[in-house]
Amino acid sequence: MRCYKPDVPSDSVPFGLRIVAASRLSFTLIDLNGETGRRNGMASLALAHPSFQAVARPARRLSLATEANSAVHADAIERFLGAVSDELHLPPVAIEIERGLPAHHGFGSKTTTLLAVGKVATALYRRPVATERLAQLAGRAGTSGASVNLIDRGGYLVDGGHLNPDDFDADPQKYLLPSRYA
Q: Which of 146, 173, 181, 157 is nearest to 32 (CA)?
């Protein structure tokens, strides 16, 4: 992920930061039923294309402009930016998503979008926040930390998943939930 000043003449637009974030491709979920004593592991790779790109600028009030791919996440983005703003007492930000990731195609679009927007908003006001904290505020990484860890590091990773709790065998379905519920 990279943040940099937009390549637009400074006299035509207020100062801002552009962010470019890689997508994530997961090859497999490892041990979906927790039989080995761990669950929800994943092998994943950061991809340069498709990538996410947005610009953040100071604003009088929170505003969000999305393109088609990111429109599906607009409500989540606004809630997340509100949570980040409340936690860090950030001034309002205007976010323009120039290139979103296709939703529901396995590229980690929601997590990547939320974390990239959080990263650029906090960088704009020089209030960097750990990606793990942004993931907590966004309600992401409940199942796997692949997208979260690839944001900062890129590359290829194998997430070993979560150790099953002692009461796992009594009610496995309680723990075998999608990320948004975990």
A: 173
